[in-house]
Amino acid sequence: MRTIEWKEDGVYIIDQTALPDEVNIIRCEEYERIAKAIERMEVRGAPAIGVAAAMGIALAAKGCTLASCEDLQNKLEDAYERLRKTRPTARNLFWALERMRRTWISASSSEPKELVKRIVSEAISIAEEDVAVCRAIGRNGAELIEDGDGVLTHCNAGALACVEHGTALGVVRSAAEEGKNFIVYATETRPLLQGARLTAFELKNEGIPFRLLTDNMVGYVMRQRLVNKIIVGADLITRYGDVVNKIGTYGIAALARHHGIPFYVAAPLSTIDLAKNIEDVIIEERSPTEVTCIRGIKIAPDGTKVINPAFDITPRELVSGIITEVGVVDPPYDLSLLFRQGGNGIDRVVS
Ligand code: MRU
Predict the structure, then answer these.
(1) Given this model, what pLDDT does residue 345 score?
(2) Which residue, 24, 174, 268, 308, has most beta carbons within 10 Å?
(3) How far is the CA of 247 from the centre of ligand 1 (A)?
(4) Is the pLDDT of residue 228 over 70?
(5) Domains of the chain
(6) Average pLDDT over all residues of the chain
């Protein structure tokens, strides 16, 4: 099954908080349920939350019994505002919501029934494109993987973080499909253990050889030469190639540079925000209990003060290449060259 699917009776998502112990499916009938799913991280990962938000807008449109297009647009604006507030960092969420908004504005002269149809179809297109884009990222990145490699990844940038296939794990999947023999080193990724719970789950199901390590073992595996490539996903990439990704990514990139190991980032163009510089990035700060507890079990004394940033920023000079659906981009980065301005906002593809 896909991580997220549009069906006639609602949006179906895999509950990622229950994995790997249980595979539970949540059916969302209203946009508010989608918003809650993103906040609770039942659906997570930058591309997946973009698709979920787009489908949230489609649910808002579909559930609308209003007579005029103007009323419908007001309802859609409410859904848009609500969904924008769910998580602050991942670019794909805002990209997908802006795209949905452009759709209903450009179709505003249509009959309400026709407008709803256009909105639902746009959300489905965003999901379908994600599948194709991840496949292309996988193909492009697989060229970097060779027999005998040790490939380290962080967090979960797999099928679960997208609609299917994945970005960083999409590269790994494609390389495995091509018959290459290599081992994946997956960090557990505290505090929420996306590596241990989700990446390990995906790799195990695919039969791709992997080792799980705790986050503090990264330097060790590099010094032991078990790892010779790093591939991670991204939540936002700035115009000049600075990478916002799961907390801990920056430390891995710095260690990789120290050991002379290439550090690649795999992400769709929808993750790139040409308008943002490092200082404009909003890093989500999450609940202290994620740090003081592990899966509901308290591990620190009562009243312990913590920091809990969900993401960090890896500066462009540590990034060896950015794997996108249009190819692998080498430094120095000016990612604006990958875009052209289309009729409905930023579109792709140039070179
Ligand atoms: O907080 P999360 O689990 O949503 O963070 C996810 C990540 O940091 C992923 O690495 C990123 O979204 C890339 S997913 C293809």
Answers:
(1) 42
(2) 268
(3) 10
(4) yes
(5) 4-135 (1.20.120.420), 144-348 (3.40.50.10470)
(6) 95
What is the DSSP track for 110-121? Answer: S-HHHHHHHHHH
Listed in sequence order, the DSSP H helices in 63-111 are 69-84, 91-106
Pick from 176, 312, 166, 157: nearest CA to 232: 157
Give the angle subtended at the CA of 23 by the CAs of 94 and 158, to the nearest 5°.
45
Q: Is 158 in the pocket of ligand 1 (CB under 6 A)?
A: no
d(CA 235, CA 312): 10
Pick the catalytic residue: 130, 149, 235, 312? Answer: 235
d(CA 136, CA 198) in angstroms, rounded, equals 22
Average pLDDT over residues 218-242: 98
311: three-class secondary structure by DSSP: strand
Q: Strand 10-14 to strand 4-7: parallel, antiparallel, or no bridges (unpaired)?
A: antiparallel
Measured CA to CA, the distance from residue 253 to residue 261 in angstroms comes to 9
Q: Sorting pLDDT into bands at 50, 70 and 90, what band is 342? A: very low
Q: Is the CB of 161 under 6 A from ligand 1?
A: yes
DSSP conformation class of 310: S
Cα distance between residue 28 and residue 7, in whole Å: 10
151 lines ligand 1 (CB under 6 A): no
Per-residue pLDDT, 346: 45
What are the structure tokens assigned to 218, written together? 């990264």
* Three-class DSSP category at 12: strand
